[in-house]
Amino acid sequence: MPEGPTILFQKNKLQRFKGKIVSEASGYGEMDKSALHNIKLMDIDAFGKYFLFIFKDFFVTVHLGLFGSVLVNDRKKVNASFALHFAEGEINFYVTKTKLIEGRPQDHFNYKVDILKPEFDAAFVLNELQTKYGDEAIGDAVIDQHVMAGVGNIIRVESLYRSKIDPRSLVKDIPEKKLVFLIKTTLMYAQEFLALTKTKGVKTEALVYGKKTCPIDKTELLVEVMGKVKRKTYVCEKCQKLYK
DNA sequence: TAAGTTGTTCGGGG
DNA sequence: CCCCCGAACAACTT
To answer: Which of A171, A181, A187 minimizes the C-alpha distance to A129?
Structure first.
């Protein structure tokens, strides 16, 4: 279920617990939960695909992986991997990885690369791409969480299609103007994804992800597990240019 | 119905 | 020691 926008959407639904006291944490996850007892939850934020539960001297990251989900004041039949209990209710996570990290999230994550944060810095991302990822295929680089946090396979596929760039193009071969356009397109599509999450229309409204033909000229799409990331990729070889 | 998946980490082998 | 690959995780949809 989760790419960056899904996490942001779910995070916003948890805000009623901000400032409340965590009475107890539970779940079968291996993280030591003993510190999460009668402690004030200062803030609930998100970075990339992580939920951030921020306490005074540390924070807890929750990652939904591929199969994870979250429920507020409701439970599934299966056991929660992580749960926070409050006098006012509870947050239940299923199939998650959690981690307790000392310090503040902004000292640990670079907010400049999060496609859904106001701190996002397109010039910084462009420079990172050009200086550190030149030899990588753009299809691999764009989903790298160090390049742009929050990008998942759907955002990757749709942004590259909308930018008319073949994912197999090496970063160093792509004109700077096209990279700038790709970054901008990725941000815009992330917002569209967020809006579609509210109506569950992400997949039906996708242009090429999960489709067989290009919506522009009905060309059959190349559908292949490709690149270092080994994720299913949808490409219109007519519309998307392979730079080399 | 069984295969496929909006993701990441870990560890083994080369 | 580094890189690449596959396994593991374990739930829901089609």
So the answer is: A171
CA A79 – C1' B1 distance (Å)?
25
pLDDT at A59: 96
* A56, A71, A170, A242 from A174: Cα distances, Å: 44, 43, 7, 9
* Residues of chain A (214-233) having a beta carbon less than 7 angstroms from strand C: 228, 230
pLDDT surpassing 80 at residue A150: yes
Model pTM?
Answer: 0.95
Q: Which domains does chain A have, with CATH numbers?
A: 4-107 (3.20.190.10), 111-235 (1.10.8.50)
The owner of tokens 């999060």 is A114
Predicted local confidence at residue A1, as pLDDT? 65
Q: Give the nucleotide nearest to A69 (CA→C1').
A: C11
